[in-house]
Amino acid sequence: MKAWIFLVTSTAIAAGTPCTRLTSLKIPKVTVRSASMSQSAPGLPSLPSFCRIQAVAHPVTDSEIEFEVWIPVAWNRKFEGVGNGGYVGALSYAAMGRALRNGYATASHNTGHVGDNLLFGLGHPEKVRDYAYRAVHVMTENAKLLIRAHTGRAAVKSYFVGCSAGGHQALSEAQRYPEDYDGIVAGAPANNRLRQTLGFIYSWRALHGEDGSPIVPAAKLSLVTQAVSGACDGHDGLKDGVIEDPRKCAPVDLSGILTSAEANAVRQVWAGLKSPATGQPIFTGWPLGSEDNGDQSWKPYLLEPLEPMRVGVFRYFLFGDPAWPWRKIDYDRDLKLAEQKLDYMQAIDRDLSVFANRGGKLLMYAGWADPVVPPQDTVSYYEAVTATMGEAKTRAFFRLFLAPGMAHCGGGPGPNQFDSIGPLDQWLTHATAPERIVATRGARTRPLCAYPRVARHMGKGSIDDAANFVCVLPAQ
Ligand SMILES: [Ca+2]
């Protein structure tokens, strides 16, 4: 009898609140605008049946965070929060669709504003904070609450998956809200955002004359990449059209394709921004081989914009002055000011002990041919965490995978399609730490190896088959 009562009780709890009745839930500072069963979403005409919840959160005055939570009928009992790209104030429906098809309950948000124009932050410091770190946390807390309300159960595991700005969000969650997620995937993280913005300004100025006209013709960028490939491809021991580690490239002769002024501009972008006062690096350069790979290039990020990308971080967020003369930037002084006033815009804390000690796992990846977020900076962050926490402790919860020839979050000449949530889930549920992840591009498969290891061909068999590669420490 007692067992029967328990069964009835747990069934009643498990039944939860019907989807359409979630709109009447009272959640502090949240309004559930709609909730209904669905099998589609914008751009996703055919999805597994799910409860679609649309809501808005107002954690503080002047904050308005749109978010959605999707809970599949055939639920795997896990939650996957998904990240955003750039400054785009829009929900990531495609990523939500992928999570849903894998059985996850999922959530996305619009970062607290609409559209990809940094003007949103002018005079709205709370919206900047929403973008920088708060919106993803607010979404996460409320998504968990709604999942529990609808299903009657808490998710057994919670994961976050993001790339670019989503990678920044991923690291911010691990650092600021280490109890939000059990597992986190941080792809090409734009977490060093203040310095990277200076890198955009510096690189734009390197590639343009004082009158704003480009020094390097866009059509020549692909020639630079071909020259880099010719000089560096075989440097890793395998002529396969992919550069294993562009930091090890020998000097590239550009004299046959660029004028000396053009070559000088490109070399400045490669070299990165150094402090005019001390000569110390402020931000890494962009990697050799990232100039133009057809599908991704420096063109939309460094060359074609009429002013430096994301200059609004300083113009609107820091100085609050639409007329701020960015050409007169003082890299040392203005970085210092930004670090004082906009520290929350970055996620560069090297101590992830709280996340690690509660069993959190972090999988980070980057492409070696990324024209947006230089992978050298991602490596630097990993090495900084390792130096802070120790190698053994770091490897126990944090792995970095570098994809040779991959551009920004995909694309590029190297194998660039791979599953990250699967290996992360295996790590959390079976304690199997990822050592290699197989990436594909067309018919070619290749293992991505846990840093600092690299994929080495065993000397026989196709170079297009991952089975013929082992992960080894690179030759010094
Ligand atoms: Ca190669």
Instruction: Name the overall outline.
Output: globular
Instruction: Supply the number of helical segments.
Output: 14
Radius of gyration: 23 Å
Beta strand %: 15-25%
Q: Report how far apart the termini are.
A: 70 Å
**What fraction, in percent, of the residue positions are helical?**
25-40%
Q: How many domains, in number, for the residues?
A: 2
Write out the distinct hetero groups bound to the structure: calcium ion
Q: Short description, anyone?
A:
The protein has 476 residues and is of the alpha/beta class. The chain has 14 helices and 15 strands.
Describe the fold and architecture.
The chain is an alpha/beta fold and 476 residues long. It has two domains: 282 residues, Rossmann fold; 150 residues, no CATH class. Helix content is 34%, strand content 18%. It is built from 14 helices and 15 strands. Strands 1-2-3-5-4-6-7-10-11 form a nine-stranded mixed beta sheet, with helices on both faces. Helix 5 runs antiparallel to helix 7. The longest helix is centred in the first third of the chain and has 27 residues. The radius of gyration is 23 Å and the shape is globular. It starts with a helix and ends with a strand. The N terminus is likely disordered. Bound molecules: calcium ion (CA). The site of calcium ion (CA) has 7 residues, from loops.
